[in-house]
Recover the amino acids of this structure.
């Protein structure tokens, strides 16, 4: 657990058992927890025909996070003596999958947890899922008349829909639609805060943020609503500092600034009553509990207390009634519940390859003999010098090869000698008093490549697009020391399809400790905390499609229900996404086969076999199948 920091980032949900397997630990009805081996869950899925790669969704963790956020706000409200309630909403864009949204709605029902929609499609998803008159639906994003009309009709049915004005032009549309439909709309307004936050996803804060109204536009909107006698419809103030805000100071500064706006809108005569802080509640991906980009320097309880206290601190002094507190936490709600499991197909080592004729003789080129001497004379005291020599002689042999002066076999021997020297230097680095600058990258340069049965582009898009790091850990064999050090390459043919940044105890690491593969045995890794943003942002690079998905629920007796499953895209599926027509493709291939029969190259029976192979491939998984 220490080596991979499981207990640091696992938030109490992930741990190890005595057999060296990662367990998922979920709250049970008796107030205790139940732990189940992830290896057992994975094997159960594979036995059911859901092979690797497999996205595992643990429903209990989704329920637990929804409850935790609501309960934590509940405790903060009670302990601070706050005079209103918390109403969370889940932003659908963070994970739009129907099964996830349905589960959040189910788990959120006792807490009146609602949904946030940023588009017409998401509003329809929200309206078709929520069944709780107390829950809110917050509509952000650009809204056309159709979007607004749909929201107004839903309001007629008793659904609490709020339109958050993101741009000045939307006010007019909302007024026009509401007057035509004769519905008093619930209007919110998104403001641009001057506070700018740290972290990766901070472009939504500060003066140049794309969304939201500045103070001048806000006042123009208030006047416009007043002219239409609709100030009583302006009920909500919204802001969003950005996702994954690592520093609690930024959270507090944002609340304080927003409360100033809130109090002044009340002063202007707006009805108000709701303060929506947006998202930003961070996930501690690297377990460092710091204000690093992939971490956070606060607990959930601290976040809730700080928010409640900051609101009270500002509004009490202005004599303004406490509003309903809304947050749109997405990442923190869903990140823990999904784990991407995948197998390792093969490895490459940067070590000498066993060759039949390796002995360097008098007949070999002098450069080879020099290289052999350099490789034989390495000590902890001459690492830099030895490395320079080995590199020089290896490069000389390479250039001799280009000029036809050494044979391919001699070059192979030289490459082997160089790797032998470099590996020896690497092992001696630990003994060196000081590691020369040139050699600092050696462990990374000589690390293994583990070929993983995934597409980073499809399953972990933030990893290649914005250098996000996720905890990546084998889910078994923790009772053995991982003796290899590796980077991961995926199965797309793209040099960006690799993972070479991993969470570390101090800072990101460039290699990951792993176990050597064992003949005939699966080696399964998990990328954890991937429930937020990854699924729909993924793409079809090299036509690797959606992976298999399985939802599991761990029961109070420790048994596991495989509650839902979705088989990943077939090859026919992904081809049809890019406008191929599988039936026409089959016809084309059939004609090739028929012509081959006619030409006498294959028999009709062989044709049958060949077409069978073709159709089986078409309906197969896009990933490596064992
Ligand atoms: N609300 C809005 C308006 C957003 O743009 C986002 C995402 O950036 C969120 C909520 C969710 O943020 P998070 O996942 O950090 O909770």
């Amino acid at each position: 657990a220490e080596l991979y920091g499981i207990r640091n980032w696992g938030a109490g949900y992930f741990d190890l058992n005595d057999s060296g397997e990662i367990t998922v630990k979920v709250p049970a009805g008796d107030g205790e927890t139940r732990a189940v081996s992830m290896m057992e869950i994975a094997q159960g899925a594979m036995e059911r025909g859901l092979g690797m790669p497999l996205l595992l969704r643990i429903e209990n963790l989704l329920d637990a996070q929804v409850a935790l956020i609501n309960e934590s706000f509940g405790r903060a409200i009670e302990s601070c003596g706050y005079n209103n309630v918390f109403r969370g909403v889940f932003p659908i864009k963070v994970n739009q999958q129907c099964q996830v949204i349905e589960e959040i709605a189910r788990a959120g029902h006792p807490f009146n947890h609602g949904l946030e929609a940023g588009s017409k499609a998401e509003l329809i998803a929200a309206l078709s899922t929520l069944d709780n008159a107390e829950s809110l639906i917050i509509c952000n994003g650009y809204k056309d008349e159709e979007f607004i009309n749909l929201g107004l009709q839903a309001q007629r049915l008793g659904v609490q829909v709020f339109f958050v004005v993101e741009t000045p032009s939307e006010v007019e549309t909302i007024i026009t639609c509401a007057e035509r439909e004769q519905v008093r709309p619930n209007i919110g307004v998104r403001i641009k805060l001057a506070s700018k936050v740290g972290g990766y996803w901070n472009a939504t804060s500060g003066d140049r943020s794309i969304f939201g109204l500045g103070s001048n536009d806000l006042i123009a909107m208030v006047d416009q609503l007043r002219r239409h006698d609709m100030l009583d419809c302006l009920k909500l103030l919204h802001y969003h500092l950005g996702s994954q805000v690592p520093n609690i100071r930024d959270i507090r500064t944002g609340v304080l600034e927003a409360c100033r706006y809130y109090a002044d809108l009340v002063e202007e005569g707006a009805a108000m009553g709701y303060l929506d802080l947006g998202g930003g509640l961070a996930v501690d991906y690297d377990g460092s509990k710091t204000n690093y980009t992939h971490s956070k320097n606060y607990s959930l309880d601290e976040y809730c207390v700080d928010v409640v206290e900051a609101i009270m601190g500002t509004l009490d002094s202005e004599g303004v009634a406490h509003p309903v507190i809304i947050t749109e936490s997405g990442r923190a709600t869903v990140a823990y519940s999904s784990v991407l499991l995948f197998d390792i197909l093969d490895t490459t080592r940067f070590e000498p390859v066993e060759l039949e004729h390796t002995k360097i003789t008098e007949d070999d080129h002098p450069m080879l003999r020099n290289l052999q001497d350099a490789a034989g004379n390495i000590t902890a005291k001459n690492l830099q010098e030895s490395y320079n020599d080995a590199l020089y002689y290896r490069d000389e042999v390479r250039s001799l090869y280009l000029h036809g002066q050494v044979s391919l076999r001699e070059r192979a021997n030289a490459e082997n000698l160089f790797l032998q020297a470099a590996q020896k230097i690497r092992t001696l680095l630990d003994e060196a008093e000081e590691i020369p600058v040139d050699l600092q990258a050696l462990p990374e340069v000589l690390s293994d490549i583990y070929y993983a049965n995934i597409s980073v582009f499809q399953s972990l898009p933030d990893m290649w697009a914005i250098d996000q790091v996720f905890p990546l850990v084998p889910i078994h064999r923790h009772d053995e020391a991982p003796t290899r050090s590796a980077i991961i390459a995926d199965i797309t043919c793209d040099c960006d399809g690799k993972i070479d940044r991993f969470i570390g105890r101090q800072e990101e690491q460039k290699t990951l400790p792993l176990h050597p593969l064992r003949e005939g045995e699966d080696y399964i890794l998990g990328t954890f905390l991937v429930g937020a943003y990854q699924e729909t942002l993924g793409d079809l690079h090299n036509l690797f499609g959606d992976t298999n998905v399985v939802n599991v629920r761990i029961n109070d007796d420790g048994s596991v229900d495989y509650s839902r499953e979705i088989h990943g895209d077939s090859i026919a599926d992904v081809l049809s996404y890019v406008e191929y027509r599988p039936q026409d493709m089959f016809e084309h291939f059939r004609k090739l086969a028929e012509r081959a029969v006619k030409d006498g190259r294959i028999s009709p029976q062989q044709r049958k076999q060949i077409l069978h192979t073709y159709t089986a491939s078409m309906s197969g998984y896009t990933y490596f199948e064992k």
